[in-house]
Specification:
Layout: H1 9-22, E1 40-47, H2 52-70, E2 72-79, H3 84-94, E3 100-103, H4 118-128, H5 133-137, E4 140-141, E5 146-147, E6 150-154, E7 159-162, H6 163-168, H7 178-192, E8 195-197, H8 204-216, H9 233-249, H10 261-267, E9 271-275, H11 279-287, H12 289-294, E10 295-298, E11 310-311, E12 315-319, H13 327-339, H14 341-347, E13 353-354, E14 369-371, E15 374-376, E16 410-411, H15 421-428, H16 431-440, H17 445-465
Parallel strand pairs: 1-2, 1-3, 8-9, 11-16
Antiparallel strand pairs: 3-12, 4-5, 6-12, 6-13, 7-9, 7-10, 14-15
Helix pairs in contact: 4-13, 7-9, 8-16, 9-16, 9-17, 10-11, 15-17, 16-17
Amino acid sequence: MADGKGLNRREFIKTAGVGALAAGLGPAVFAPGRIWAADKTLKILVWSHFVPRFDNEWFDKFAKGWGEANGVQVTVDHIGLAELPSRTAAEISAGQGHDLIEWIAPPAQFEPSVHDLTDLNREAEKRFGKQHPLCKKSSFNPRTKKYYSFCHGWTIDPGNYRKSLWEKAGKASGPETWQDLITYGGKIKKDQGIQLGIGLSQELDSNMAARALLWSYDSSIQDANENVILNNPRTLEAVEYMAKLYQDAMVPEVFSWTAVSNNQALIAGRASYILNSISAYRSAQKQVPEIAKDIYFTPALKGPRGTRWSCEHVIYNYMIPKYSKNVDLSKRFLLDLVANYDQAMYASELYNSPAFFDSPIKPGNRGYAPVGGAKKLRDLHNAWFDDDPFRLEDEEKGKLAVLKDAEAWATNVGHPGPANPAEGEVFATFVLPNMMANAARGMKPDVAVAQAELLIKAIFDKWRQKGLIGGGTPVGAPKKSAPAKTK
């Protein structure tokens, strides 16, 4: 039984993994090294994970076990996502606080106040292979050649749709294009009274949706050289689309949504489609199983010219503030976290995906199973997506298989350039969701775009003057021969 002989993959996962996970650490492996003084303390501030068992059943116990193995007292404080920016700024301003602070968006705007983690990132690539490009773009500043954070993982963001609703509307496979949301999503709202769940407010998922739409319409905030190119006909096209989508398929509550509102709407049966991770689905499995069985997934939607991108808004980034006296200890903790990422992925119920392509799956752990008659380490990036170990017993198999090629349609905040400090501030101040919401509420789309452009240019100019972003000849920007006209 220990080597998995005679068991299928799902059975092996259950027997080899669940017992270890229930114990907290499972077969966690900590690299040998210096034993720290018993009074050494490492303080960690993290967001409260969307999958509660990750915090309660794994991470807190992992951190405690790591501390015990290294003679270090580790304290972990969890904080609500909305409180994280102000808490981080307050600690940096005070010059004291936590040694490690984890964000789920690129914290590029804090680069002047945090340690350069270039050596940590290089060591991680030596140990665990190449880092996913979107993770590097979310932690590395090409202008200063510094890593302002350490990105250990990311979350895949497919579309979540209710199959029964879309089947009645004539599209059982769910939406494939943004236009499908109007054509079929509008029909579902009209005939079945169920709206689409895309936010137009100052919160994380609205930020993500606005960027995914913009990129899929072949536009963006900046080009690859970090020049502002927002105000162009393709942005206008995307904003006009969003105004129509709101009119045809949504309701006013989306203007006041929080980061959990689309999840709650889907679980409550009040949304036909949302742009999100699999967290709402996981919650539905526990709270409303019949809804969970009806939730299926789509890759990023295609724009009018076939382009499709998903904005990966949950990008796990640890920063080490300059006031920390435990820099080396913090780096060691992060390397050991990546060394145990198979447990992190499993404990998050597949919400977390690894940033490093060779993140290990240790023998005897959940991702290790016989393949082709011989034991072989499996690809952690796609582990379990064909056979979800958390699916309900009578639920259709293979629903998560759509996530396997996510690297082809997932990209970073700042696309096609890096997640620089200017992009970080634009993200934190919700300029794009406000632009989309203004048009949906009746503002002329060209005015909404022009207002957003003014704000964004001011932000980019500020950071460029500080020498923290680049700028040069725009590349690949849609031509703008005349002022855009609203339809």
